[in-house]
Automatic annotation (TrEMBL):
Tetramer of two alpha and two beta subunits. It is found in: Cytoplasm. It comes from the Eukaryota. This is phenylalanine--tRNA ligase. InterPro entries: aa-tRNA-synth_II, aa-tRNA-synth_II/BPL/LPL, Endo/exonu/phosph_ase_sf, Endo/exonuclease/phosphatase, Phe-tRNA-synth_IIc_asu, Phenylalanyl-tRNA_Synthase, PheRS_DBD3. One of its GO terms (molecular function) is metal ion binding. It catalyses: tRNA(Phe) + L-phenylalanine + ATP = L-phenylalanyl-tRNA(Phe) + AMP + diphosphate + H(+).
Length: 798
């Protein structure tokens, strides 16, 4: 279908072809030629889309046959037509076969050069597959806009530690495919997003810190109402006040610059009167990152910013060590300099990393008050509050509880009775002693002041959860091998400003780390089972086998058991071994004439067989279940083959089966079965052994042994053993046999036709190849994704 028209704002004609590619290669070549003829006779913008029924490369097919000749024709057509095939996002493949095994990229949108030039940022996306077995493919085209809205970056942020790292990291993020303009726009978006996220996180962290500091100051002020503060508490309070002031300064700087930005951009009612004055004033120092960014401010301008807390702490540490041997305790040093210990610790770690200093850990264990302990230290213990609330003449329980509150009343009663301070009557509470001391409050104040207590008092407070242990960590610091009174931050780039100002002569450049790792490569990884499955498929295809459709996990008992001449009393048909369906519990569609022949062969035999001699029940055959083996698919395929003039066939399947088994290191309730069968005239047991030698030799197992076995639907039957060179022992690798006449003849196959078959699990050879000893590590919900990413790329072979 060809649609011709125009698009608003575009003078050129538009041609859109929506096609469905034919299956025959000759018809495809004719279609390509017709499209080339149309394009040569009509100038304009061309879009060709649809199901081309062809792929360009081998990796665009999975589990389906790649035709190099058709691919060459398709690529030649795209080249001669001057079309562009953009990378498709969303999915690798657009078509999924009905059995869920085969995947191909059949659908695509091809664009001409004029379209790409007009909309260079176009993209193609495969959408979720909902209405059919093909994915919808969407073309998104946005006109290039080289003037995105700029975003603000305050000068006040430039002095905050870590801001430059955030911007540099965002600028180094990958920008994807596309032209340079698109990549540049993506880079700016990354920087904007990183700055917004950083600023939001910073504001949130400062808000939490501010609230915590105010809460701590309030606690100290409550204590000050009951007793004088110690020297340490006073210093701590001043330090907290200083930190609050510094946080307020940062917040005010942001507010001031926001106001200046708004005034500059939007103006005031008197803007027209003041414009000439504004033009003469220095403009606010606002860095704007946009598609036309102004160059960053020179380094000599940044040096005029006020020093940050980090810089102050670093200068204090290095300056102290210039005239002293060491800093014995970072905590005491922080108090002496009036800088938070956290900032001092961060500086010491940084300096230690660059060997400016050598730091040794200091750990001190001390007790601190819990929130409940702080309350009691300020207001008194519950038992003391309860005692003081009782007048000499006594008080009723209800009135006392109302006076103290439920929590204080409950705890106070328990502790006061334990201390024998009060007498609790049924309705009245009275004092037993005239005077008491609040020892709990006194102990809590001692701990808050840093005084030592005996172990008995410590244990008593611990049991009441009024104190908790605190490990204080600090450092002792001395000069390191790279010590210098002032650290010069090494430059990472030589800029134009460095050259113009001559500062490059004094700069110390950061050394290249040639051992640093690059960005990790992110991409999909094939599961070991999928690798081995694909290799198994290739072996079957090389041997001339055709894949059977195995998309039905639910099967009837008839095709799973009865058609295979498996009696209805067989233990495998019990619910302990098979998953039966509750809804729908039975099937209603079975070939009646074939069902009758199967019933007869089970009950009374035929074709030289005596049968099983029991009453065959139709309701048992109608039960639905999760198939226990893919031989159920083989029985369906052989029955379909018998309804046509006979033709020799080779079939294979690899798919999931389900058995009600206990899960352990070697068994799962859900696993994969590999099955192969050959149907032809005059096949013998020798043919079966020859095919098995050929099949397993391609797996790297040339040394085979066979052991007689029993299967209800094969006679004779053999277990297959292969010698594992790595394990140095014989390993059972599969089961095999020749389908019984009682199974084949009721289907309608000729009497001289025999079927040889064999089967094995997919998990066992995979476990052997990848050295996995627990099947749950290979398949199921407990699989480690690290195994999928790190497993070696290997081919079958031992």
């Amino acid at each position: 279908m060809l649609i011709k028209g125009t698009i608003r704002g575009c003078l050129e004609s538009f041609f859109v072809i929506n096609l469905y590619g034919p299956k025959l290669a000759s018809n495809k070549r004719q279609l390509w030629a017709n499209i080339l003829s149309l394009m040569s006779s009509n100038e304009g913008i061309w879009i060709i889309m649809g199901d081309f029924n062809a792929v360009r490369f081998a990796h665009e097919r999975f589990n389906s046959v790649f035709n190099p000749s058709e691919a060459a024709d398709f690529n030649r057509f795209i080249h001669e037509a001057g079309l562009f095939d953009l990378n498709m996002g969303g999915r690798r493949f657009t078509f999924l076969s009905s059995n869920g095994d085969s995947l191909s990229k059949l659908d695509r949108i091809l664009l001409c050069k004029n379209y790409i030039n007009r909309w260079p940022s176009s993209s193609i996306q495969a959408l979720p597959r909902i209405w059919s077995d093909h994915c919808p493919v969407a073309l998104k085209s946005i006109g290039s806009d080289f003037g995105p809205r700029p975003f603000k970056c305050f000068n006040s942020w430039l002095g905050i530690d870590g801001f430059d790292i955030v911007v540099n990291d965002a600028a180094c993020l990958p920008t994807g495919n596309g032209n340079s303009d698109t990549k540049f726009l993506t880079k700016l978006k990354n920087i904007k997003s990183a700055i917004k996220q950083w600023n939001s996180s910073r504001l949130h962290s400062n808000s939490i810190k501010m609230a915590s500091l105010r809460s701590d100051i309030d606690s100290l002020e409550l204590i000050a109402e009951s007793r004088p503060l110690s020297a340490l508490e006073k210093e701590t309070r001043l330090l907290w006040k200083k930190e609050i002031f510094e946080l307020d300064v940062l917040a005010n700087n942001d507010l001031k610059q926001k106001a200046r930005v708004k005034w500059t951009l939007e103006g005031t009612p008197k803007r027209t009167l003041t414009k000439h004055t504004l033009d003469k004033q220095p403009k606010p120092k606002i860095s704007k990152f946009s598609s036309r960014p102004s160059p960053p401010p020179p380094i000599h301008r940044l040096r005029h910013l006020p020093p940050s807390l980090h810089q102050m702490a670093e200068e204090a540490v290095l300056g102290f060590l210039e005239h002293n041997e060491q800093i014995g305790d970072s905590g005491e040093f922080a108090l002496e300099k009036g800088i938070s210990h956290e900032e001092i610790v961060n500086v010491i770690k940084s300096l230690n990393g660059f060997r400016f200093v050598d730091a040794q850990d200091i750990k001190k264990e001390r007790w601190q008050l819990t929130a409940e302990g702080k309350t009691y230290a300020a207001t008194g213990s519950p038992e003391f509050q309860l005692f003081m609330a009782i007048p000499p003449e006594g008080i009723s329980r209800v009135e006392l509880q109302k006076k103290l509150g439920d929590s204080v009343f409950k705890i106070g009663c328990q502790q006061a009775i334990k201390n024998k301070w009060v007498e609790m009557g049924k309705s009245q509470v009275s004092r037993k002693v005239a005077h008491v001391d609040d020892n709990v409050k006194a102990l809590l104040i001692k701990i808050n002041d840093g005084e030592a207590l005996n172990q008995e008092d410590i244990d008593a407070l611990k049991r009441r959860k009024l104190i908790s242990p605190q490990i204080w960590k600090g450092y002792s610091v001395k000069k390191g091998p790279n010590y210098a009174p002032k650290r010069r931050k090494p430059a990472t780039d030589l800029t134009r400003e460095n050259l113009q100002s001559g500062e490059w002569k004094e700069l110390q450049f950061k050394e290249y780390n040639f051992l640093a790792k690059g960005f990790p490569v992110e991409g999909g990884c094939l599961h070991p089972l999928l690798k081995v499955r694909r290799q198994m498929q290739m072996i079957f295809l090389q041997m001339g086998f055709e894949e059977m459709p195995t998309n039905n996990y639910v099967e009837s008992s008839f095709w799973n058991f009865d058609a295979l001449f498996q009696p209805q009393q067989h233990p495998a048909r019990d619910s302990h071994d098979t998953f039966f369906l509750r809804e729908p519990s039975t099937t209603k569609i079975l070939p009646e004439d074939y069902v009758e022949r199967v019933k007869r062969i089970h009950e009374s035999g035929g074709h030289g067989s005596r049968g099983y001699g029991y009453d065959w029940k139709r309701e048992e055959a109608n039960k639905n279940l999760l198939r226990t083996h893919t031989t159920a698919v083989s029985s369906r395929m052989l029955y379909a083959l018998a309804k046509k003039p006979f033709e020799a066939k080779r079939y294979y399947s690899i798919d999931r089966v389900f058995r009600n088994e206990a899960v352990d290191r070697t068994h799962l309730a859900e696993f994969h079965q590999i099955e192969g069968l050959i149907c032809d005239r005059g096949l013998s047991l020798g043919d079966l052994q020859g095919v098995l030698h050929d099949f397993f030799s391609r797996l790297g197992m040339s040394n085979l042994r066979f052991k007689p076995a029993y299967n209800p639907y094969t006679e004779p039957s053999m277990e297959i053993f292969g010698y594992h060179e790595g394990l140095k022992k014989w390993v059972e690798v599969g089961n095999s046999g020749m389908f019984r006449p009682e199974m084949l003849l009721p289907m309608g196959l000729p009497e001289d036709v025999t079927v040889i078959a064999w089967g094995l699990s997919l998990e066992r050879p995979t476990m052997i190849l990848y050295g996995i000893d627990n099947i749950r590590d290979l398949f199921g919900h407990k699989v480690d994704l690290g195994l999928i990413k790190s497993n070696p790329i290997c081919r079958i072979g031992l």
